[in-house]
């Protein structure tokens, strides 16, 4: 059929990663026409690359109703953008293109939730083996990364050319060329603290230290997407607060969260240290796994006990936001004491390029490659890592 042919065609191309500097340059020389010409090819390429991968998912997962819904949404959006393939460019097409992008963005708002539902549906209907679990982890990392990147492109275009330009703001689309990291830290902390106070009737204080190795001035500013940074910090603060409150249950004196913000030549580091009792080393890798976090939450039906942080997809998604522009999130715990989480960001906007999944022979092989047999001896036969079931 036609859409199948178009998918084959567009999935042959690799996505073109942009640097944050290119996003800024694009935005400053704001040309809706150039942006349109770029996106009417680049969006179908990115969509087609990830849609090809959806079809390689383990059959059991593909059959789940929620995954079908997501798959259909992608097909619809792909078709809607393909319509602009051969139109001539005038004011009207630019306008309808903007409207189409907004419609697509709205359609895909709940995709993370729907995918999580699909994983739940699979867990409830089938036994999931290690190979399937690995495939799902591999796929969801790539799928959500693709989604982050596509939404970034759509947001930039609609913010810059959607007709509601804010001339007073220094922002270029959703990028702040002079993002004050401490401001975002404080904002994320305050909002996490608000939830913590509601749930536990108390919350740990925040102590911030900063060190600018380059210019010994006080402020650390970067070119970044503040909403992404906020998302990561809010998630990590919620987790740390929960750990502290649960670990010091009886007391009314909670050890503060300590944040260290450092600007080096290459990296910006934000380290959040909590004294929430830590977690065993055997559990740290699991925190970033989709399959461990989707255990149906006991409190979900009880609207009055919304958990502060439920180890949902928060941590793996936050790490993807960091990795999207070649940063990372690392978690180090001392069981019995507390946990450090570090957000690494690229200090230089020239190094902050989009990291995009590409569909090729290597990626498709992954879905068919069995789990390698262990070449290190161990008691439990499952390889190096002891498999444990759920967090809850
Ligand atoms: C903990 C567990 C955790 C996960 C993510 C971030 C911080 C923390 N602290 O104890």
State the distance separating the first and last CA atoms: 46 Å
- Alpha-carbon Rg, integer: 22 Å
Helix content: 40-55%
Order of helices and strands: HHHHHHHHEHEEHEEHHHEEH
Tally of individual helices: 14
Shape: globular
The hetero molecules present are: 1,3-dihydro-2H-indol-2-one
Structural class: alpha+beta
Number of strands: 7
The low-pLDDT segments are 298-306, 382-392
| Strand numbers in spatial order across the main sheet | 2-4-5-7-6
Main beta-sheet annotation: 5 strands, mixed
Strand content: 5-15%
Mean pLDDT: 91
Topology:
Elements: H1 2-11, H2 20-28, H3 32-54, H4 59-62, H5 65-82, H6 91-107, H7 111-125, H8 130-161, E1 176-180, H9 181-200, E2 206-212, E3 221-224, H10 226-247, E4 257-263, E5 267-274, H11 281-284, H12 290-293, H13 314-324, E6 328-334, E7 338-346, H14 361-366
Parallel strand pairs: 2-4
Antiparallel strand pairs: 1-3, 4-5, 5-7, 6-7
Helix pairs in contact: 1-3, 3-5, 3-8, 5-6, 5-7, 6-8, 8-13, 9-10, 10-13
Bound molecules: 1,3-dihydro-2H-indol-2-one.
Summarize the model shown.
The chain has 392 residues and is of the alpha+beta class. The protein is built from 14 helices and 7 strands.
Structure write-up:
- By secondary structure, the protein is α+β, with helices and mostly antiparallel strands.
- Helices cover 50% and strands 12% of the residues.
- It contains 14 helices and seven strands.
- The protein has a five-stranded mixed beta sheet with strand order 2-4-5-7-6, with helices on one face. A two-stranded antiparallel ribbon has the order 1-3.
- A hairpin with a 3-residue loop joins strand 4 and strand 5 (267-274).
- The longest helix has 32 residues, at 130-161.
- Residues 298-306 and 382-392 have low confidence and may be disordered.
- It binds 1,3-dihydro-2H-indol-2-one.
- 1,3-dihydro-2H-indol-2-one binds at residues 236, 239-240, 243, 274, 276, 278-279, 287, 315, 331, 339, 341.
